[in-house]
Structures are given as structure tokens and as C-alpha cells.
Amino acid sequence: MTAWHHYSELNACIETQTDWSGDHVVRTFVIVTMTDERCELDTAVCKLTIAEARELAFELLAVAEVAEHGTRTRGDER
After folding, report:
1. Sign of the C-alpha dihedral computed for residues 56, 59, 61 and 67 taken in this order
2. Is residue 31 in a domain?
3. pLDDT (tens digit, 9 = 90+) per residue, 28-43?
4. HSE of 47 in the Cβ direction (CA atoms, 13 Å)?
5. CA 58 to CA 65: how far, in whole Å?
6. Is residue 3 a part of any domain in this protein?
7. Among residues 26, 65, 31, which one has the least CA distance to residue 50?
8. Global pTM value
9. Does residue 1 sit within a domain?
10. CB proximity list for 28: less than 8 A, separation 6 or greater
11. Does some domain include residue 69?
């Protein structure tokens, strides 16, 4: 039996990695964190490359579009 846990907040920020001098950015990452406002779950952290962040954003937009379309379709049927 699988228990589902729900996070209440999703945040994203940019993290940069610099060279040894600290003057030049070597890599840039997108850090995504999910937290639970009741503090029942450990914070989930995911470090994404820019390409991975774009892919995730695209997938989220596609899922949201399908969900919105499905909601409108069911609402119109009533």
C-alpha cells in the first residue's frame, strides 16, 4: 500500500557555480524545493540543469493544459 504525501509549497531559485577565483560563472543550475507547511515531510530538493528545468517546465505546462481542458469539458457537460 502506497501512502501519498502532499507538499504545500514549490519554490525555484538559480544557483551558480564559479571558478576558483569566484569571478567567472562556470555552471548555472535551477534548484527546486518542495516543502510541507505542517513540517510533516522532509524538504525535497532537486538540482536541475537549465535544459532539465526547461523540460520540466514544458511537461508541467502540458499537464496543466490537459487538466484545464478536462475540467472545462466536464463542466460544459453538466
Report:
1. negative
2. yes
3. 999 999 998 888 888 8
4. 6
5. 11
6. no
7. 31
8. 0.69
9. no
10. 14, 15, 16, 17, 50
11. yes
